[in-house]
Amino acid sequence: MAGRPVDHQRRAELLDAVVDYTVEHGFSELSWRPVAAALGVSPTTLVHRFGTKEQMLVAVLGRLRERIFAATSDAIGERPDLPAAARAVWTRTSDPQRGAEFRLFFAVYGNALQAPRQFAGFLDRVVADWMAALCDAQGPGTDPATAARTATLVIATIRGLLLDLLATGDRDRVQDAAESFLATLNATENAPH
User: Fold this and answer.
1) Which of 7, 42, 93, 115 suits 155 as a labelling partner, its CA being 20 to 30 A distant?
2) Is 0.85 topped by the overall pTM?
3) Is the dihedral angle over the CA atoms 74, 78, 82, 83 positive or is it negative?
4) CATH topology (fold) of 8-190
5) CA separation (Å) from 98 to 57, 72, 103, 104, 165?
């Protein structure tokens, strides 16, 4: 006797609800009973849809990464230059309404670094998505090594600024630093080649 087939649409809806729950309540609160109660389903339903708690966590991390990347990609738009792409990423990630999402992102990042085998999919994509987008934003004529180096600096700077903002709440100081950094990208983009 075969089990019920997985309803992928229902699983996706539940996954989005679990991600929303996790953003609101935090990474450490992710366990079967509280999540099931908040979503109005049984713990057995979650087990059926996700398998183990670790598998649910990996799914949550993947979906969170997809959401962040998709929302920021939408803000960037089609074929922007590097300064516009970096500004769109900073504006989206530093939005106060996104604070809980990015606190979760950094909590997850820290846990993934502690258990790299368990979170290999997350770690494989967390930088690669942005590297590709920011390298593309530099245009096809940019030397690939230069594009990768510049994209790495942009990712590291924005993540560092965001971590500082989340840790201190000092929006004015961090925004001033972000504007200074973004201005260097504009200067580089406008420099004669």
Assistant:
1) 115
2) no
3) negative
4) Tetracycline Repressor; domain 2 (1.10.357)
5) 20, 12, 9, 10, 12
Give the pLDDT confidence score for residue 73 in this predicted structure. 72
Task: Extract the tokens encoding 2.
Answer: 């075969």
Count, in order, helices (H) and strands (E) of the chain.
9, 0
| Residue 93 exposed, middle or buried by CB count within 10 Å (0-12, 13-18, 19+) | buried
The residue extents of the domains of the chain are 8-190
5: CB partners within 8 A, 6+ apart: none
Q: Answer yes or no: are the C-beta atoms of 86 and 185 closer than 8 Å.
A: yes
Q: Are 64 and 56 in contact (CB under 8 A)?
A: no
How far apart are alpha carbons 162 and 183 in whole angstroms? 17
**Confidence (pLDDT) at 66:** 83
